[in-house]
Amino acid sequence: MTFNALTGVLLVPAVAAALLAALPGYRLTARLNVAATALTLGCALSLLVKRPPANAYLLVDDLNATFIVLTTFVGFSTSLFSLSYIGHELETGRLSPPFVRFYHAMYQVLMFAMNLALVANNIGLMWVAIELATLTTVLMVGIYRTHEALEAAWKYFILGSVGIALALFGTILIYMAARPVVGEGLDAMVWTVLLKRAIEFDPALLDLAFVFLLLGYGTKVGLAPLHAWLPDAHAEGPTPISAVLSGLLLNVALYALLRFKMLLAANAEALAPGPLMVTLGLVSLVFAAFMLYRRRDIKRMFAYSSIEHMGIITFAFGMGGPLANFAGLLHMTMHSLTKSAIFFAVGHVAQAKGTQRIADMAGLTETHPTLGWTLVLGVVAIAGLPPLGIFMSEFLVVSSTFARAPALAIILVFGLLVGLAGLFLRLNSIAFGEPRGANAKPQASYVPMFAHLAIVFAAGIYMPPTLVAWFQNVAGLLG
Amino acid sequence: MSRLDFDVAHLLAGSLVLISILELYQDRLYALLNVYALHALTLAASVAWQAFVQDAPHLYVTAGIALVFKAIVIPVALHRMIVQLGIHREIEKVVSIGFTMLAGMALVALAMVVMLRVTHSADPLAQEDLAFALSVVLLGLLMMVTRRNAVSQVVGFMSLENGLVLAATGAKGMPLVVEISVAFSILIAFIVIGIFLFRIRERFDTVDVQALDRFRGERR
Predict the structure, then answer these.
(1) Which among A107, A299, A424, A460 is least surrounded, fewest beta carbons within 10 Å?
(2) Predicted TM-score (pTM) of this structure
């Protein structure tokens, strides 16, 4: 196999994982981790201009190139954040050097698994990659080995495995549907072949397969009522992992769902996948918006916010059509950038205050002005206030829904407003008021969060026409 | 396909469902492990028969993995773990056995109704294999939700995976990559679970998941 950008996004993390597992020393490995993610990002960017042809296992098209660039970019900035975060954990003794080594190796394995899931052209390979990503994150969530962390990891593991099992059953059913048409063997699992021939498949089998895939991968997207693992996993794992989970892994699972949605859409007799996704999306949105109110743990609160936003994105893709798909893609990008920026800030805040309890971190803008105001800006962005990027995308989702299904739009707006009020209620007690809690100086790396928020801010004001055209093109692919 | 081929495949897949139901009403961990070993043994026989009938030699690998790894290595390892860790040998259930059995029957009926209706275009063997496989998957899920011990939940998960392997081998000519990956994933899953059981043991005096639940939720 010749070396190209496609093998680069897979090979670089794989080699880096092996290296990081073998090398001792925090300073060296943490920097190597950053270098590896930077190199992967470089390979991913070059996929935008030049890409190798698809084969039976790997495929790059405009749709997954977008996902890969987003994944590797956030992966890169999170590794920068993790540099200072993990350094602090090592100093305070929450993590011992062997665990830090393990953490860095696992970080690269996770990047490898996510990239593999995104470039897979074979639905079996895609399943394997998502399973690998799940197992990796289970280990990372349990890395602190406290009661809560173990409980969160166990719950995530059990629910994640059940989801993954259902997804495999759905994958087998897709193969069964394809076999009479495509013939036995490898071709019947190759996505590009499936898409071309989907019109001849047995619609009943496709329907059943999609239900299993939706439940299976939907668990990994964190859609209510299958979300139970998500708040625990976000709250108890290391914060860089919360950022990667929210910003990336949920997207990867959603990407898998989108691929199968396209497959069903190609067969006119199969059930329309849209309404199912719309329903799950709305349920997640409204449920998570109400759950924001009584949260005491700051990371848990933002985990519920992630469920809310994944609900909005699933809803937008479920509605379908060029405009809603465009809005869904934009929202997904903006949410990944904003949510990971928020988790960067939250990670440093929790380290400086020595706690994740919201009640113990009042008056943050006074004790830690830079972190406090960054968090405020992040929450303003994630709540969807103008002029930031999420306002743009939410506005597009709402307005395109009003034109087609006003009743749904009312539920959507209701959920958004409830979520907004909940976030601001909590933000008020975190950022303002009488300062409380420890007052340690954070050794924060501000660059990643500033960069993310700057992009979100810029996107809210001005979107370059090439970017708009690119997203429109991808939205068209999604049908 | 001859009549005999079909009948044997049918018999083996049906036995797998029956053994899944047997697992549901065990109330001792050792007995549960023995029944699970039987489950894996039946799976191995079923996969081997499929390999023979479909003339697909690569399936013998899957059968071998089921025989050696799932029917022997895992039950023995779990058995030893229970002894070494001094885990309670009784299985604590969330609901009564009678109710679990009724729910199990309902799930099997559901699987039959759904799969037989949907897959009518497929050949009869694949059709019934899938229906049985879905039953095994659902019974494994049922077992996971009605048990409190971590070990019996793990056994529930493994019998669920057995159902997936049955489905994958029943789908004729499914590429090898998936079968190996299934076996491989079980290996990984098992290692993870093993690590977890040990770690949980370090922190708690029981592997009863309810003890974990006490720590769940909001920090107060």
Answers:
(1) A424
(2) 0.91
